[in-house]
């Protein structure tokens, strides 16, 4: 039997990863990307973002011909039996909720070109109610004689683990309106279901609204865990306690779990902050804002970590920020990516720079994207080099190489031995042994 022909509409981070992984599973894949620069890169088998393993997988399947890219919706409509919508839903420029215009544009543009009995599957993170709207649009715009159906299948992949999370997810969620759609998704994802880490991957079959909400509530819950531990970190500081040991201890309770209890400078990226705000906004539109006011607190605690870090840096310097030389280790919102969207590291570096400090940033992968976002700061080519003549070193993104840095080499180049570990992963004692004043967040 010929492999299923599938399309990925939108080949940013999510779409490029999905497309490569579906080719890896043996499907014939056509990716649709309208940005000419991204399209050119993808056609050469290069990912538009840095993600371990993705370039290699894209290149392999582009070379074999199993994975192709186009900017033509017409071609996609003629080709695909199952179409995945992988478009971005960024925060709206007025700050109110998520902007679903790219998803809507894709449905409007694809629908008139659909052929056969296609299944259109939404993967984007959307405000609840969007899928029902898209299903109505699809019905309205699909040519007569074509039986198109919509399903919603949210994606839970984490940047830096995208390939593995796509091929071996914790669970699959199918928001469907018919048994036929469920059956097609089960068949399509059969290799993923079989690859489950502990037996078959669980599949939750549900309605559109639940599927949409699963995604935003999962991200909001993860954000809540982080803000909770960051609030506790401040209590630890004034009480003389250690938040890392505390998180270990409560994390052993498997009702709580240790993951996402890393206290530090807070969460960033293109998902957690945006989804939290969009969910709160949508709850307000639905008339239940009050019950979700908790999410506003989660966001506020997160924003507070950034200003708090700036104040701690100032306190450690013991002088005004103006003219102080500060080395910032890390620019990406987390290690393993070059994504600097809403990055705590860069936001803090930017604030220090704005308040007159001479900031030098080093990130192993995100130097280019950071420079594009904050061109007026200085950038170094290495961790030690960033620290030359520094009065203070800030560890803001926990790339493994910062843990492995040679303390003596850093000691030789700095003006003052002061270190703030904003991710609570460095061996502070080793730094103190070399004569440094070293501190974390929420630990002494
Ligand atoms: C997040 C979710 O974890 C994924 O499940 C989801 O699919 C994805 O959003 C999405 O919606 O697309 P991601 O944004 O890649 O994934 O990053 P996370 O690993 O969740 O980290 C988010 C932020 O929280 C980072 O800034 C990280 O440094 C911070 N974080 C994470 C902490 O401050 N403490 C922790 O213990 C863990």
From TrEMBL:
NAD(+) binds at residues 38, 89, 125, 159, 274, 341. It catalyses: UDP-alpha-D-glucose + 2 NAD(+) + H2O = UDP-alpha-D-glucuronate + 2 NADH + 3 H(+). One of its GO terms (biological process) is polysaccharide biosynthetic process. Keywords: NAD, Oxidoreductase. One of its GO terms (molecular function) is UDP-glucose 6-dehydrogenase activity. Its EC number is 1.1.1.22. InterPro entries: 6-PGluconate_DH-like_C_sf, NAD(P)-bd_dom_sf, UDP-Glc/GDP-Man, UDP-Glc/GDP-Man_DH_C, UDP-Glc/GDP-Man_DH_C_sf, UDP-Glc/GDP-Man_DH_dimer, UDP-Glc/GDP-Man_DH_N, UDPglc_DH_bac. The keyword Oxidoreductase applies. Pathway: Nucleotide-sugar biosynthesis; UDP-alpha-D-glucuronate biosynthesis; UDP-alpha-D-glucuronate from UDP-alpha-D-glucose: step 1/1. SUPFAM superfamilies: 6-phosphogluconate dehydrogenase C-terminal domain-like (SSF48179), NAD(P)-binding Rossmann-fold domains (SSF51735), UDP-glucose/GDP-mannose dehydrogenase C-terminal domain (SSF52413). Residues 327-428 form the UDP-glucose/GDP-mannose dehydrogenase C-terminal domain. The active site is at 271 (nucleophile). Pfam families: UDPG_MGDP_dh (PF00984), UDPG_MGDP_dh_C (PF03720), UDPG_MGDP_dh_N (PF03721). Substrate binds at residues 156-159, 215, 268, 334. It comes from the Bacteria. Belongs to the UDP-glucose/GDP-mannose dehydrogenase family. This is UDP-glucose 6-dehydrogenase.
């Amino acid at each position: 039997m010929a492999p299923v022909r599938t399309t990925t509409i939108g080949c940013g981070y999510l779409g490029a990863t999905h497309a490569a992984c579906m080719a890896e599973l043996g499907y014939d894949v056509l990716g649709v990307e309208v940005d000419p620069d991204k399209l050119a890169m993808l056609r050469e088998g290069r990912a538009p973002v840095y993600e371990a393993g993705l370039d290699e997988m894209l290149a392999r399947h582009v070379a074999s011909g199993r994975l192709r890219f186009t900017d033509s919706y017409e071609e996609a409509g003629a080709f695909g039996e199952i179409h995945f919508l992988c478009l971005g839903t960024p925060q709206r420029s007025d700050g109110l909720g998520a902007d679903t215009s790219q998803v809507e544009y894709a449905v409007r543009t694809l629908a008139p070109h659909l052929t056969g009995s296609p299944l259109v599957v939404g993967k984007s993170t959307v405000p609840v109610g969007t899928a029902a709207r898209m299903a109505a649009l699809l019905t309205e715009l699909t040519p007569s004689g074509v039986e198109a159906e919509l399903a919603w299948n949210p994606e839970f992949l984490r940047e830096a683990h995208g390939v593995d999370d796509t091929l071996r997810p914790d669970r699959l969620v199918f928001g469907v309106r018919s048994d036929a759609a469920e059956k097609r998704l089960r068949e399509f994802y059969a290799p993923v279901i079989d690859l489950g880490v502990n037996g078959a991957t669980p599949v939750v079959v549900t309605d559109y609204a639940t599927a949409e909400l699963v995604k935003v509530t999962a991200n909001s819950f993860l954000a809540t865990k982080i803000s909770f531990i960051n609030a506790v970190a401040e209590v630890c500081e004034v009480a003389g306690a250690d938040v890392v040991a505390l998180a270990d201890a409560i994390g052993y309770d498997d009702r709580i779990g240790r993951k996402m209890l890393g206290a530090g400078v807070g969460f960033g990226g293109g998902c957690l902050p945006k989804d939290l705000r969009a969910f709160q906004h949508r709850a307000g539109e639905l008339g239940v804002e009050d019950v979700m006011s908790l999410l506003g607190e989660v966001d506020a605690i997160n924003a507070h970590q950034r200003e708090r870090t700036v104040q701690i840096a100032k306190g450690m310097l013991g002088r005004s920020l103006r003219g102080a030389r500060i080395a910032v280790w890390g620019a990406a919102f987390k290690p393993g990516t070059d994504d600097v969207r809403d990055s705590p590291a860069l936001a803090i570096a930017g604030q220090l720079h704005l308040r007159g400090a001479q900031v030098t940033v080093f990130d192993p992968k995100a130097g280019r994207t950071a420079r594009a976002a904050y061109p007026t700061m200085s950038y170094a080519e290495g961790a030690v080099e960033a620290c030359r003549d520094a009065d203070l070193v800030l560890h803001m993104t926990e790339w493994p190489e910062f843990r492995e840095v040679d303390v003596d080499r850093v000691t030789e180049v700095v003006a003052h031995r002061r270190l703030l570990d904003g991710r609570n992963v460095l061996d502070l004692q080793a730094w103190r042994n070399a004569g440094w004043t070293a501190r974390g967040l929420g630990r002494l």
